[in-house]
């Protein structure tokens, strides 16, 4: 499936990243010389996304000034300065700025390395995998051993066909949610107007057998604390990754 629109969830306070986030928003924290949000936007750009909504709250003016320097994808801003909307509320509000249709959703504090040049990117694979006739959502997932900076929690059990259920100790294929989703915007037509957690829709989809996962190719990095910056950079050095500063 061709997907041209996306949203990046970027409005959080970044409390675990303090004291860095006392003067800047977490998505502008740099890893290997590039802001976290630019890793996410570069992934989206490489997947063919033309327009991305980014929600703003913490140091919103700094976020907007940074993102206005980008040419691709085109950035639209969803203003949450009056009140944080949590993951679900922020997504439901932000996607109203986009046409109805399929979209990608990414968190702003993670990225991955190790995709194979010349092959489809992880987000292109996710877009192709997403089948709205069978799925409410399709999400990138990754085994715990291919993560850096994660807290060790396993989120889902993945069946052979990719169907996801909540992980229980002893399950054979536990995976971590890698912070990227393909979905259709109409899924949130019944969403409340106030703040809520997107996990509500994960659990609804599981109950209907309509939450699916796709294995991420490469290594996944999440950067939620000051210590995680060095951990991510060390892993990038181990893998010989020297990112181009396309979004800086």
Overview of this structure, please?
By secondary structure, the chain is an alpha/beta fold. It has a single domain (5-238), classed as Spore Coat Polysaccharide Biosynthesis Protein SpsA, Chain A (Alpha-Beta Complex). It has 6 helices and 14 strands. The longest helix is centred in the C-terminal third of the chain and has 13 residues, at 226-238. The protein is globular. The protein starts with a strand and ends in a 10-residue tail after the last helix. The model is unreliable at 244-248 (pLDDT under 50). GO terms for molecular function: nucleotidyltransferase activity. Residues 6-234 form the Nucleotidyl transferase domain. It comes from Rhizobium paknamense. Pfam families: NTP_transferase (PF00483). InterPro entries: GlmU-like (IPR050065), NTP_transferase_dom (IPR005835), Nucleotide-diphossugar_trans (IPR029044).
State the main characteristics.
single chain; alpha/beta; Spore Coat Polysaccharide Biosynthesis Protein SpsA, Chain A; nine-stranded mixed beta sheet; 6 helices; MurNAc alpha-1-phosphate uridylyltransferase; nucleotidyltransferase; EC 2.7.7.-; transferase; nucleotidyltransferase activity
What's the gist of this structure?
By secondary structure, this protein is α/β, with parallel strands linked by helices. The protein has a single domain (5-238), classed as Spore Coat Polysaccharide Biosynthesis Protein SpsA, Chain A. 23% of the residues lie in helices and 26% in strands.
């Amino acid at each position: 499936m061709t997907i041209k629109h996306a949203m990046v969830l970027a409005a959080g306070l970044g409390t675990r990243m303090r004291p860095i986030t006392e003067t800047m928003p977490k998505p502008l924290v740099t890893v290997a010389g590039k802001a976290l949000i630019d890793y996410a936007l570069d992934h989206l750009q490489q997947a063919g996304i033309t327009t991305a909504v980014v929600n703003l709250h913490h140091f919103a003016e700094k976020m907007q000034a940074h993102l206005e320097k980008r040419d691709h994808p085109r950035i639209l801003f969803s203003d949450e300065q009056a009140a944080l909307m949590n993951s679900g509320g922020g997504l439901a509000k932000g996607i109203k700025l986009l046409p109805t249709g399929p979209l990608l959703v990414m968190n702003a504090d993670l990225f991955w390395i190790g995709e194979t040049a010349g092959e489809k990117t992880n987000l292109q694979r996710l877009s192709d995998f997403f089948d709205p006739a069978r799925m409410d959502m399709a999400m990138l997932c990754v085994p715990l051993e291919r993560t850096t900076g994660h807290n060790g929690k396993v989120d889902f059990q993945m069946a052979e066909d990719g169907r996801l259920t909540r992980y229980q100790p002893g399950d054979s294929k536990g995976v971590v949610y890698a912070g990227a989703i393909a979905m259709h915007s109409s899924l949130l037509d019944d969403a409340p107007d106030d703040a809520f957690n997107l996990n509500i829709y994960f659990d609804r989809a599981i109950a209907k057998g309509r939450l699916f996962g796709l294995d991420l190719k490469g290594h996944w990095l999440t950067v939620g604390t000051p210590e995680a910056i060095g951990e991510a950079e060390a892993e990038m050095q181990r893998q010989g990754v020297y990112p181009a500063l396309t979004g800086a």
